[in-house]
Amino acid sequence: MAEGSWVDLLPTYERERLRKKLRSPEVYAESRADVKGPEKISEEMRWNEALAELKLALALEPRLCQLLKEKIAEELRERGVAAVFGVDVPPDVRRALEAGNFDVTVTSPDASAQDQIVLLPEGNITDKIPLRQSVSERYVTQFAMGMASHRGEEDADEGDQEQPPHRRAA
Question: The pTM is what?
């Protein structure tokens, strides 16, 4: 058998039909709708970077993790479980969350979802309770802004330090 593409195995009329279909403006427009522009890609990169920094900070800084946990517990008491979570929560898990018996992490609630802040009720680690996307975004944005302002302070402090001799202006 001669070498060739699997498309060569199709009858000629089928290949022509496929070529016409693939050249149609509707199919082209549909395929272009799935393509992301540079703005969208850079926005997603910034978001993923902020999530990665938050995840690392939560793992390395127990105090930060405790503060976020306290803030979420406070919001649960003030606004209620329905306003904070985007999913139905079983009654036993709801009681644990309201009592503050949970851990905070950044992960994907399921295989098809994007990473976000999720709560892991103590004792039942298989349950991942995602915050509403808007609530998760608010906490991540606050963290990113806090880190940016902290970096700005560090940069200013470094500028105040005396420069090494080889850096001084003559």
Answer: 0.65
